[in-house]
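To assess whether ligand presence alters the predicted conformation, the chain was also submitted together with alpha-L-arabinofuranose. Input:
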Amino acid sequence: MTTLKAQVLLDTNRTIAPISPLLFGGFAEHMGRCIYEGIYDPSSPLADECGFRTDVLQALRDQAYTLIRYPGGNFLSGYHWLDGVGPKHLRPRRRELAWQSIETNQFGTNEFIEFCSAIQAAPMLGVNMGTGDIQSASALVEYCNAPVGSYWSDLRASHGYREPHNVRYWCVGNEMDGPWQIGHLDAAAYGNKALEAAKMMKWQDPGIKTVLCGSSSDGMLTYPEWDRVALEIAWEHMDYLSMHYYAGNRNNDTSSYLASALAFERYVETLEGTLRYVKAKRRSKHDIFLSWDEWQVWYKGDPVQGNWTEAPHLAEETYNLEDALVVAQWLNVFLRKSHVLKIACVAQIVNVISWLQTRKDGLLKQPSYYVFKLVSNLARGSALDVAVKADAVETRQYGPAPALDVSASFDEERQKGAIFIVNRSPSDAVDAQLTWQDGKAVQVEEAWQLTGSDPKEANTWENPERLVAKSIAAPVVDGTGTTLRLPPLSFTVLTTRVK
Ligand code: AHR
């Protein structure tokens, strides 16, 4: 093992943008065991009076989610929201085509709203642009947000919810660029349909914010043309453009995988350019921001078809140390791109492609759970434009990549900051010199680290705390600088306070 060198230059005057709290969102889909057996399991001894798993609720609260996107995903494009409201014994049992599963509809819009309030997160609902029409999209907004006194709002009241739910964030469809999507459309057809849906939805409630489906990933052949075309049509009625991306170490090439932030950053930059282009072309004063409303590591190949069973085990990934370090870089990118990225939702919050796994008697927290929890609880105020000069790690896919991936936040009001550092080298420690260039005397209050010797290490039911974020000795700041040795394969968080 050699020791690499890095300089991390921080300046609280050199900011990028305020960090949107909605970057710490999650996604819950009617897929596999996310809703049933994950969030909702009335038969469990761990369930509360609403049927929600209390251990799951607590873990989600600890992760400080601000927003939850629901009900899909691919599920959305064949879903009729009316199936999921009203007396539970009257709700239909349906064959659900996206995941070839049986949907009992025992959990629907109102249960979702209750769930969001139990974890104090804002709801983000989707309207079906596959089999759904613009009328049913408009009716759902009325059902959720209109005061009583009209057909759909009175129906809500008759279901026990007199007060409007006031859902502010609305996805207009899901991954409509994908041939796998029920009712898939081309970009112009989707742009026109989304525009008309959003018009009606905003006439129902002018306070709502709408999300246009962007490309399903940067690997789509239609990317980024899809985004340009749909944006040009629907620009004035949309507030966000969605991005989706699932990362993975598909070639078992850890060095390249640990440089994933380079791909994430490029993806954001291309779409940022697309937004600027369309805004200029339309001579618009309106702005659209990015909503990365599906992101996660997903590649290990678990089944995704349920053979017409209820709550099948689908896409239940085991996450290891290298996956956790990719998640940490993703969150760093969110901060570094916080001028244009305003919403993000990890897909998904429990069981399906998730760092939380339930079984009847317990809950397993995988390493990336701890990464998200640290960042979502500590990144406050504005993102700082950190300058990093670091020795490089060679990667097959990206060439040389800086050994450190860093982001930082500073809360002017509280005079507190946080620094998030990934050492992406699989083999080498990094001696990092941190310097605060604004001349303010700072103190490191707390330090946390998640690390291990093997990138494939994971938590198991037998050894559930093998990889957790551990409190480590806070480095002492001498004047305006400090040094610390960052082990290979590590994620380190420092919280700071201006003295
Ligand atoms: O999150 C799982 C699936 O991935 C979603 O349903 C879909 O939008 C994406 O392809």
